[in-house]
UniProtKB/TrEMBL annotation:
Residue runs in coiled coils: 34-61
Superkingdom: Bacteria
Species classification: Bacteria, Pseudomonadati, Pseudomonadota, Gammaproteobacteria, Pseudomonadales
Name the UniProt record assigns to this protein: EAL domain-containing protein
Bilayer-spanning residue ranges: 12-34
Residue intervals of the EAL domain: 257-510
Length: 510
């Protein structure tokens, strides 16, 4: 069946709907993830810059102490001890000061006279050394600033407590590490020797332009998702909203593309609806008097489809009107070239429905059809099934009047199966009655049905209407109908519906 949704496709449809909903969400999440990563990198860099600024300020303060003490180096410790202590008291970040001579500490603010060799190679750039602690506070890191001038030298010490405080306060969510030479200090105040492991997220490393230290900043594992969940909830809602909209659009588009109307619209544009032709013969001579045009759907996958499987859909969607127009155009193109060879007006029967009777478009289609043939060479017969009654309105009145003026004839199809009254027959100016094949099939089989058939034949005679018997399959049926003066016959006995080329060659053989 070309117009039924196949169950095996349902899973695929659901998958496509889900995909069209999830794809924009997934894409949005990827974009937000990249955006969050960028934001974190920027955040880490700004934090590192801020930490560097703070450390430089603190080092300025510490270096100032060393600068002021340097000229005193070489003097006796007893004379300069107070000056050393004064710097410690005056400068907020300075914890201790020392004087050196020839790379040897000889005076300390803390101990007074002192003796310790200093190796300038331990100092980054000869200036800075980060230490784990000193004998007084072994667990508190120290940053030592060294200044020298010839044999003179001064050291001022910055308390690691201030440094780790800065790392903690500025860092907050960001992990910060102060790195001096090979040593580093983390926000928890811990001293580390050697290289620190990398930060998993948004790692950046900034160097101070004024002192020999750098600050590494970054975030722990999973920070990007944490950042997204705290910063982007409104965007997530928006994404879900777009996902739902996109899923719904995907669903509707699929539904549309598999809907019978869409499928038939496609078939119409692809000219898949083609005419088949079945001969109608004279009741007495059995000579071909005309043809009934029957629609077939030449479906690319399903093959030739019978009309009763798709005509109801075509009627429902209103596509039957353009489909019939296409059928009439194809019929005219096939049969018009033969029209000059017809000895008497050739009947061409076209099936129409109630949808055709809602406006006057049919008149134009019939006029064009008739114009294609040699004048007077054909009789166009519109077959209107009795199964669906047409409401008489001003439009139908006008329509049938104009059709009549054009010389178009009307046949009531499937006569005997519906309930058309005599008034109905008169209203539409009927020319033919097509006796339904169910009555023909009962000839010689069911006497009651044969009585009905006889009454129909009598009624048609009284109303002076020509008759066509449909579905004539046997010689007995044919003889019975001929004996009862039925004007025309149609059925497999005389020929099945066939494609145009085949019909034309059968006609010329005749
Ligand atoms: P219908 O108008 O009553 O057409 C006669 C149907 O009987 C055709 O079926 C024809 O193939 C079949 N038939 C002819 N001779 C015999 C016979 O000796 N024995 C039997 N058993 N059947 C015979 P088909 O072509 O399948 O069409 C079925 C129906 O579809 C038509 O019934 C008509 O109502 C509709 N139809 C066909 N083409 C069109 C069309 O272009 N427009 C509209 N609106 N309806 C159409
Ligand atoms: Ca018919
Ligand atoms: Ca019929």
């Amino acid at each position: 069946m070309p117009l039924k949704n196949k169950p095996r496709k349902r899973g695929l449809k659901l998958a496509v709907t889900l995909l069209s909903g999830l794809l924009p969400i997934a894409l949005g999440v990827v974009i937000l993830y990249m955006q969050a990563e960028r934001a974190l990198v920027q955040n880490a860099q700004e934090t590192a810059e801020e930490a560097i600024r703070q450390f430089e300020l603190m080092l300025d303060n510490t270096a100032q102490a060393a600068r002021e003490l340097l000229p005193l180096a070489g003097q006796s410790c007893l004379d300069v001890k107070l000056a050393l202590r004064e710097q410690v008291t005056r400068r907020p970040f300075v914890r201790s000061t020392n004087l050196m001579w020839d790379d040897t500490i000889y005076c300390s603010s803390l101990f007074g006279d002192y003796h310790e060799k200093v190796s300038s190679g331990d100092y980054a750039g000869g200036r800075l050394l980060l230490m784990r602690g000193n004998p007084v506070t072994p667990d508190t890191a120290l940053l030592i600033y060294r200044l020298e001038d010839g044999k003179r030298g001064a050291l001022s010490t910055l308390d690691g407590y201030h440094l780790s405080n800065v790392l903690r306060l500025i860092g907050r969510q960001t992990l910060l590490v102060l790195q001096v030479g090979n040593n580093s200090l983390t926000a928890d105040g811990h001293f580390h020797e050697g290289a620190l492991p990398d930060f998993p997220v948004a790692q950046s490393m900034l160097k101070s332009s004024r002192y020999d230290f750098s600050v590494a900043a970054g975030f722990p594992e999973g920070e990007t998702w944490r950042y997204m969940s705290s910063e982007y909830p409104p965007l997530f809602s928006l994404l879900i909203f777009f996902g739902v909209i996109s899923g719904a659009i995907g669903h509707v588009l699929q539904k549309r593309s598999t809907s019978p109307t869409y499928e038939m619209q496609r078939a119409l544009e692809a000219a898949e609806f083609v005419p088949y032709f079945q001969a109608v013969v004279h009741g007495d001579s059995k000579k071909v008097s005309g043809v009934e045009v029957l629609m077939r759907w030449n479906h690319p996958k399903e093959g030739l489809v019978r009309p009763d499987l798709f005509i109801p859909f075509a009627e429902h969607s209103g596509l039957i009107v353009p489909m019939t127009r296409s059928l009439m155009q194809q019929t005219a193109a096939l049969l018009a070239p033969l029209s000059s060879s017809f000895d008497e007006p050739f009947h061409i029967g076209i099936n129409i429905t109630a949808s055709h009777c809602q406006n006057l478009e049919l008149v134009k289609d019939c006029r064009e059809f008739l114009h294609a043939f040699a004048p007077g060479s054909i009789h166009l017969v519109l077959e209107l099934t009795e199964r669906e009654l047409i409401e008489p309105t001003a439009i139908t009145h006008q329509l049938f009047e104009q059709l009549h003026e054009l010389g178009v004839m009307i046949a009531i199809d499937d006569f005997g199966t519906g309930h058309s009254s005599l008034g109905y027959l008169r209203q539409f100016n009927v020319d033919f009655l097509k006796i339904d094949q169910s009555f023909v099939a009962m000839i010689g089989v069911d006497t009651l049905t044969s009585h009905i058939l006889d009454s129909i034949i009598q009624l048609a005679g009284k109303l002076d209407l020509a008759m066509v018997a449909e579905g004539v399959e046997t010689q007995a049926q044919s003889d019975y109908l001929t004996a009862h003066n039925v004007n025309f016959q149609q059925g497999y006995l005389y020929g099945r519906p066939m494609p145009g080329a085949e019909f034309i060659s059968a006609l010329s053989d005749h």
